[in-house]
# Entry
Amino acid sequence: MTARLTDQFPPRRGRTHEVQGPGAIGFALALAGRLGGVVLWVMQGWQGRQLNPVGAAEYLDPQRLLIARTRDEAETLAVAEEALRAGAVTLVVMELTQPLGLTPGRRLQLAAETGRSTGLCLMPEGVGSNAAETRWYTAPVFDAADSTLMRWEITKNKSGTLAAWDVRWDAETHRVIVVSEAGERPGVAGAAG
Amino acid sequence: MSLWFPRLASDRVLRAQPVDGPFALTLRQGNTERLYCLNPAGLRQGLTPGMPASDARAFCPDLQSRPAELSRDTRFLHALARWAGRYCPWVGLDGRDGLVLDVSGTVHLWGGQESAMIADMRQRLTRAGLAVRIGVADTRGAAWALAHYAEGIAPPGAASETLKPLPVEALRIEAKAALALQRLGVRSIGDLMALPRGTVSRRLGPGVLMRLDQALGARGEQVSPLAEPPHYGVRMTLPDPIGLSADVMAGAKRLLERLCARLKENEMGARVLCLTLRRVDQESQQVELRLARPLRDVARILPLFERGVGQVDAGYGIDLLRLEATQVEPLPTEQIAHMRGPEDGALEDLITRLGTRIGLENIQRFLPADSHIPERSFLIAPAAWSRAQGPWVALRPRPVQLFAPEPIGATGARPPRHFRWRRMALTTQRATGPERIAPEWWLEDDGWRRGLRDYWKVDTAQGRRLWLFHTPQDPGWFVQGEFA
# Structure
């Protein structure tokens, strides 16, 4: 199995994808930096944590980042759908906590298809929707030489194979660099924990 | 006709909050608080405007005072000028506390009697709690003199007879010239009229004679009315009620075309629009639209109304539509350039549409701020009222997400080898730091009560890369952020 990351990343435009795991925010930022254009980040307003634009500047220009703060999950989905359908932003990131049903998942797909923009749901593990085009599991990995190493793994793919990569983000070129295919590098199995 | 409100400022304040006993407004002039305007009770106590406020308090210990607000007084006078439009269309401001009306064409509406008009005016103003003095005469100068020094009506053509006994100050001349005239023994206007003109103008300059001529009508003086502020509202009544949202949108389109034409004339753009739909049963419903940028483009505004109009309950039908721009901002016409991307407008429309759903202030963007404190190194501003700013510079690695500091049980100045955070057992593999950040002492911040912070970037064996800090002045370890 030799799947190339460039075939899968950035994931298909005009679709909604899902990402899970502790590295989800890094994945979303890397995708936003890779795609360019304006990014709308929809999150629930009550959350205590927030994005730090100074840190995110390594991935994308914070000038292109818009935050929408919603009251609840239903509003998040409504805002995300409207933004995807309008096509004025290239990427809509939505932070979800509840399991996503088939109907809302499908609505997001249709909206993304109409607007030719990409949707990305950040969700906790195990609550994915069947409608998602791809689902990624991402986690940071410790590496003695480098402190941006992440493991990206496709756990669901409607139009391709499943695969996993160890990648790092290159801030200068705004590109994801594949270090090696996961599992082929010595010592990585032990460090991934 | 001249209206003088001798206690405009204090009357305005007392209308809202009546006060028993002496009351004064004070104004800071130079380095002292001086009385600016007094109520009748204050005047009876022997206080005078211009008196230092501390002296006044010594005279009259129960004096209540408040600082004067000149800009609000001016606004109030403008409101009075609008009100005076009910008597004649030609209303001008006269100084800080007066109005001047050209009523020559409207007296016949009161049966040709100025006194009837004055009585009505006086009754209404007294009911509103305003003291007023009214003078009517052929010329503006004579009316002013009467209003200020001898209330009443000068019969047509008899201005000079009426003015003769009045003091020279009634001519609106400078205080210096009035004083000079009094020193010469010229106390009343009649005395001044008796003097040869040549000597007066040689001695006191042309100003005095100009004012005298204006009062007597030998020289013209105009009343310049205030310009009507443009009104951004249009309405449409329908012969038959409508109920379909497509019909309402068609009506809204026609109204919007008229409104946008008016906005364009004045180079303004609407920021908040309000569409009122009145039903047949007199019930009215409103659709409010708050725009992300000032706009006057029919094609862009109209689709934004769709969501609001769709939620309206038409009942038995709607027979009146009213569209008003409740908030407008200057929007100068711009050259269309190829440099501006076409998607710019699409994004603003999206912000507006999302704003109708979750509130325009909940769509935010980050603006850079000049601070080393991590949580103050950026500002969050509503996207509709701010422009993107840059550049963003991170001198040192910063986490991509921040949260309120979460304590972890650890001691010592170096990051702990093992620690628990959010019910995870983590092992430090690499720690980069410390980076010392001192609190900004000029700002009070509860989060920084523990003093200095030494920040460490900790790479754990489990993968998570956390931003920890240690507070050496009040020992403790906290997690404040996570790197990607």
Residues 186-193 of chain A have pLDDT under 50 and may be disordered. Strands of chain A lie at 16-20, 39-44, 50-51, 65-70, 91-95, 118-122, 134-140, 150-157, 164-170, 175-181.
